């Protein structure tokens, strides 16, 4: 793998030299392709366009991120920003590269979580939009447009991850292809209108499954904290190493979102039936609420408290989008109609 890693480092160096003038754009791309964006951004947009699509986006995001976590624990992928320092191959000719605020992620590098979750989630949205356009226009040309945009997004995300030294190129390609497969498969198995017990079992299954797998690997002598130590060692700015990039943060997010999805469908089966204009208002309000909700700083010590609060935060996200905000808008529009 040294040859693959070495070529990846030189490619990242060449990429930074060529497109450094567009640094803000690539940082924006890597920011909006963060797995949390699937929950906080893609899910509300998709839900107010189509209820089933929104539920599918949340479902696919949670399962694909959980699978990415398991794959990372198995594959032990390095990340460029620490492998350069750990390797002795660049002592005589170190690469001219730069780290960024999004570089220092703490989990293993293979496969890329950004690429995997983005390709899975955006497949759901692209295929839904393509079907919608074709059903209204019967134009094959228009139906192809969402898929072209989808490919452009995947390429941009991949370039951004290599550019900031978060991943090697082969990790991006692997994550992208795996995400596409997951998106295609899970998009046909959306848990719409399933009972609360189903989601409780899914949430607990994801949690216990990951914890048992983690314990088994630790029992076999595998140190699963190796990547966190390397991230702290080689990150150029210690404050860039954040607790919300650890594998257990991803696990808390996925389990919380699944429980929240079950509670949302339990509180209001079928959701609120709203016309187009109120749905646009719901999207604006949900975006505002989730934006400020995500900005709330959680205590990072002890870590267990952080993970519990992180779980609660993402269990509330589906309820905000599916129950609280639509319920408020429905109440206001009905009151105005009666007046």
Entry keywords:
339 residues, 13 helices, single chain, mainly alpha
Question: Can you walk me through this structure?
Answer:
It contains 13 helices and no strands. It has 339 residues and is mainly alpha-helical. It has one domain. Helix 9 packs antiparallel against helix 11. The longest helix has 36 residues. Pathway: Carbohydrate biosynthesis; gluconeogenesis.
Mean pLDDT: 93
* Rg (CA only): 21 Å
Count up the domains: 1
The rounded distance between the terminal residues' Cα atoms is 70 Å
The helix/strand series, from N terminus to C terminus, equals HHHHHHHHHHHHH
Helix count from the secondary structure assignment = 13
Q: Considering DSSP H and I runs of 4 or more, what fraction of the residues is helical?
A: over 70%
Q: What overall form do the CA principal axes indicate?
A: globular
In short:
The protein is mainly alpha-helical and 339 residues long. Helices cover 74% and strands 0% of the residues. Its main location: endoplasmic reticulum.
What's the layout of helices and strands?
Layout: H1 2-19, H2 23-32, H3 35-49, H4 51-75, H5 80-86, H6 113-137, H7 140-163, H8 169-186, H9 196-219, H10 226-234, H11 247-267, H12 276-295, H13 303-338
Helix pairs in contact: 2-7, 3-4, 3-6, 3-12, 3-13, 4-6, 4-8, 4-9, 4-11, 6-7, 6-8, 7-8, 9-11, 11-13, 12-13
Membrane topology: Multi-pass membrane protein
Binding site for substrate: 79, 161
Organism: Scleropages formosus (Asian bonytongue)
């Amino acid at each position: 793998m040294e040859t693959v890693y070495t070529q990846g480092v030189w490619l990242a160096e060449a990429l930074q030299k060529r497109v450094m003038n567009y640094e803000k754009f690539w940082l924006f791309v890597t920011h909006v392709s963060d797995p949390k964006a699937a929950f906080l951004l893609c899910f509300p947009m998709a839900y107010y366009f189509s209820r089933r699509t929104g539920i599918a986006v949340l479902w696919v995001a949670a399962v694909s991120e959980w699978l990415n976590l398991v794959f990372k624990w198995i594959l032990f992928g390095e990340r460029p920003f620490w492998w350069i320092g750990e390797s002795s191959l660049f002592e005589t000719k170190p690469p001219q590269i730069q780290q960024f605020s999004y570089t220092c992620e703490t989990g293993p590098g293979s496969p890329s979580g950004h690429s995997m979750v983005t390709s899975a989630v955006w497949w759901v949205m692209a295929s839904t939009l393509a079907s919608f356009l074709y059903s209204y226009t019967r134009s094959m040309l228009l139906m192809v447009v969402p898929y072209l945009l989808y490919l452009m997004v995947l390429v941009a995300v991949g370039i951004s991850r290599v550019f900031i030294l978060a991943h090697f190129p082969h990790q991006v390609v692997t994550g992208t292809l795996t995400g596409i497969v997951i998106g295609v498969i899970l998009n046909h198995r959306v848990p719409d209108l399933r009972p609360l017990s189903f989601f409780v079992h899914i949430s607990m299954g994801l949690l216990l499954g990951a914890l048992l797998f983690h314990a088994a690997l630790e029992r076999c002598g595998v140190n699963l904290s190796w990547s966190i130590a390397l991230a702290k060692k080689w990150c150029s700015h210690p404050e860039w190493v954040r607790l919300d990039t650890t594998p257990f943060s991803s696990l808390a997010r996925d389990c919380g979102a699944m429980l929240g999805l079950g509670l949302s469908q339990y509180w209001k089966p079928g959701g609120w039936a709203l016309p187009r204009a109120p749905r646009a208002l719901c999207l604006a309000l949900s975006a505002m609420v989730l934006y400020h909700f995500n900005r709330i700083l959680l205590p990072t010590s002890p870590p267990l408290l952080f993970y519990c609060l992180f779980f609660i935060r993402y269990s509330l996200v589906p309820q905000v989008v599916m129950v609280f905000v639509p319920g408020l808008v429905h109440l206001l529009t009905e009151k105005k109609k009666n007046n």
